[in-house]
Design goal:
Layout: E1 9-12, H1 15-19, H2 23-39, E2 52-55, H3 68-89
C-alpha cells in the first residue's frame, strides 16, 4: 500500500469531461471511480474517515479565453448539465 498516510483524496472534473462523454457515460465513470477509490485493495490503507473531495465544474461562460458566443455559451450550458449529473452521482 502507501508508505505515508493519505489525508484526503481530491477528484477534479474539467473541460474534457464536458466535451467528451455522454451524461450516462460520465455518471457511470464517476460512480465507478468513486467505488474503486473506496474499495480497491491498493487503497486499503485509506481510513474510512479520509475525506473524498469532489470539486465542481467551473462556469465556462465566465472564462475570459473563450469567446462568449458560441463556445462559452455551449460549454456553459453543457457544464451546468454535467455538474448536475456529478451532483447526482455523489
Amino acid at each position: 500500500c502507501f508508505e505515508k498516510p493519505i489525508h484526503a483524496i481530491v477528484l477534479l472534473c474539467g473541460v474534457n469531461n464536458v466535451l467528451d462523454p455522454r451524461p450516462t457515460t460520465f455518471y457511470r465513470d464517476v460512480h465507478s471511480l468513486i467505488h474503486s477509490i473506496k474499495h480497491h485493495p491498493k487503497f486499503g490503507s485509506i481510513d474510512k474517515d479520509t475525506p473524498l473531495l469532489i470539486l465542481g465544474l467551473p462556469d465556462f461562460t465566465k472564462l475570459p479565453f473563450l469567446p462568449s458566443w458560441p463556445m462559452g455559451w455551449i460549454l456553459g450550458f453543457r457544464g451546468r448539465y454535467i455538474q448536475h449529473v456529478l451532483e447526482t452521482v455523489i
